[in-house]
Each structure stands twice: as structure tokens, then as C-alpha cells.
Amino acid sequence: MSPTSPLLKIAYDPIYAHPLPEGHRFPMLKYELIPEQLLYEGTITSHNLFAPAACDDEIVLWTHDEAYVQKLQQQTLSAREQRHIGFPQSPQLTRREFVIAQGTIDCCDYAFEHGVALNVAGGTHHAFTDRGEGFCLLNDFGVAANYLLKKELARRIIIIDLDVHQGNGTASIFEHEPRVFTFSMHGAHNYPFHKEKSDLDIALNDGTEDGLYLSLLQSNLLTLLDQIKPDFAFYLSGVDILSTDKFGKLKVSMEGCRRRDELVFSQLKKRRIPCVVAMGGGYSPDIKTIVEAHCNTFRTAKDIYEL
């Protein structure tokens, strides 16, 4: 498949890199640099990118409480609520979250057609039904999964959350939804310090390296896919598992992170399970490390699905 192939569809809007007050800008840089790098190296062209609109309120309300959504839209979050989120509220930030959520929904349509689609942002797994936490306002996987269920486009969904932080908001949202299986493999001694209960939690000790990480992932993922038999998958491919990450506490190498993506994609493709990917976290001191690790996810998806 040539680099100009439009098969690999990627959601991106410049609002993803929305500037924030001083002290909050560094985490946003990657959202601009990831597509720039992929375009520069020829992995993708502009034909691979699409800009989502903002998600309709009605669809967001299938997952989030109306009172909370109104606070976001009317800019009436309390100071305490803003501290829990970690960002100061602004109309641009709220719109950003609605656009990200729609990007993940749009990726579902492309995944049904092509096997995989990726959102440059997303993976906002700390957002609960009624509140935001940990830099997450809306839970894009929650919104998109409920969209698929509501529209009867999927019957059994698996959420594979491999960010270093547990997907606590996602676990809570789907605690009583048997059609969505939540699988979180994360650092045991990392944020959030109060963990919710996913359908399967694998808590990793500090310093976990490639061999153990990949072994645990392979054995658990293969078992889950065979037992659950999902017809759709969401994959949160956080790169805060890297040994260079400031907060991750694990010791996974850049190659180990790439092999993680390869394992997930190859197993889902083998079983013909459509997959939507969101980037999640990454906090290495050098932005080049973060961008390279995330770009590896796009490169790996292209290599596996465009054979």
C-alpha cells in the first residue's frame, strides 16, 4: 500500500493543540507535532486526516449527566472541580472535548470500513459520568461506546486501556453495562490512587520491564478476546509506560512500547475486530520521545492493516 493510501483514517483538528495558560502548554504540544511528523516523513498525507465537528449534546448525554454538561457549556465549574480536572475552564477547552469525542465516534465508522482508525487525541479515561478528573472533561471512549450500543452497531465491546494510569472513569461508567468489557493494565502505585473496578485490572509493580509487560499483556489479551468474543474494540495506547516518563514508574523501552501496539493490532486484525485508537498520556521530559512513541502507534497500525 502506498503512502498516499487514504485507508488509514486519522481524526485531527487544530483545536486539539488548544493553547493553555503558562504551565499547561507542554502536554498540548504533541497534538500538533504528531500529524506534522507523520506528514513530514511520508507515513501519511493530508488525505489520511479528517477534521471532526463537535459532538451533539444529545449523544454526549447518553454518557454524561446533564447538570455536568451544562456546567461545562456555561463555564460554571467550581474552583474545586477545575482543580480536579487540572485545567482552568474556557469555552475553547470545552469545545475541544466535544470535538475529540466526535472524532472518536467518526473513527468508529472508518474502523468498520477499514479495520482501524485513530484519533490524534482522546483516551480521556478519567472523566466520570458526572465530573472530570486528570485533564479529562468528557470520556470519549465512553461516549463512542454508548453511541455504538444505542445505534445497535455493536453488541459486545472491549476497551483495552494500556495507559499507565487506570481508566477509572471508564470503569465507573460501564460498571453495570455487561455489553462493555473494561480491561485496564496500569501502574499499581500511580494515579488515580483510589482505583475503580474494571472488569479486569492488571496492576503492575514499579519498574516493570518489557519482558514481563508484554508477557502479561499477551496472555491476558488473548484469553479475553477468545472468551468475550467482542465485535468492536477501543484501544488506549498511552506512552506513559516508557522508562523515560516523568510519572509512569515503569521501565518499558521504546521498542517494547511499539511491540505492545503490534501485539494489540495483530490480534484484533486476526479476529477481524474493528479497532478505534486514542493516544492517551505521555510525559517524558523530551517532547521528541513522546512524539516518536505516539507516531510508532500510527506507523504500526499502517504496517499491519495496510498489508
From TrEMBL:
It comes from the Bacteria. Belongs to the histone deacetylase family. Residues 27-295 form the Histone deacetylase domain. Keywords: Hydrolase. This is Histone deacetylase. One of its GO terms (biological process) is epigenetic regulation of gene expression. GO terms for molecular function: histone deacetylase activity; hydrolase activity.
